[in-house]
């Protein structure tokens, strides 16, 4: 995969960010950034480095070639991962997770990460749809998602406590 480079402003200095496939040894670093990004987003998901590592291992077992990281000065500052799912209208890039360290947000890194995964998924898997979740209460990044072409669907994300469901079903 060709490396994508982008210069961003960080205070006064200009820095170089590289987008590339995640190396297994970087899982703890990427997991720490993921957990921090979710804590700062304050949307009710309490990720830790350990739980994020398990999550990332899960994705690596399923779709290793679609896990990209943004690297700045040798450090992981963001990432994106998704999963190819066969669907009635062709392959979907699903369960897409994008995360950027809070200090590096709104500097074009998420755009570069999305470009990398979309180019690869379109070229290699001929995806027809990109799917993801976003918090409806957060203007950022929802407005950005809308600007770049994501649309709300008629589907509603549902979740529940399986023990309570079991009780009600019996």
UniProtKB/TrEMBL annotation:
Coiled-coil blocks: none
Question: What is the organism field in this record?
Answer: candidate division WWE3 bacterium CG_4_9_14_0_2_um_filter_48_10
Q: Which InterPro entries match?
A: Acyl_CoA_acyltransferase, GNAT_dom
Instruction: Give start and end of each N-acetyltransferase domain.
Output: 17-170
- Its protein name is N-acetyltransferase domain-containing protein
Q: Name one GO molecular function term.
A: acyltransferase activity, transferring groups other than amino-acyl groups
The protein's matches in Pfam families, at most eight in alphabetical order, are given as:
Acetyltransf_1
Cross-referenced SUPFAM superfamilies = Acyl-CoA N-acyltransferases (Nat) (SSF55729)
Q: Which domain of life is it from?
A: Bacteria
């Amino acid at each position: 995969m060709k490396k994508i480079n982008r210069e961003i402003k960080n205070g006064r200095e200009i820095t170089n960010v590289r987008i590339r496939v995640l190396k297994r040894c970087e899982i703890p670093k990427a997991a720490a950034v993921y957990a921090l990004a979710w804590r700062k987003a304050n949307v009710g998901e309490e990720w830790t480095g350990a739980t994020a590592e398990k999550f990332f291992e899960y994705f690596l077992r399923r779709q290793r070639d679609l896990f990209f990281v943004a690297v700045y000065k040798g450090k992981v500052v963001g990432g994106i991962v998704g999963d190819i799912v066969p669907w009635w209208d062709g392959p979907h890039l699903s369960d897409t997770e994008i995360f950027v360290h809070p200090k590096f947000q709104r500097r074009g890194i998420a755009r570069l990460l999305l470009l990398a995964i979309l180019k690869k998924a379109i070229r290699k898997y001929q995806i027809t749809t990109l799917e993801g979740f976003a918090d409806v209460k957060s203007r950022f990044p929802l407005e950005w998602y809308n600007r770049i072409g994501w649309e709300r669907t008629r589907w509603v994300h549902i979740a529940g406590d399986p023990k309570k469901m079991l009780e009600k079903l019996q």
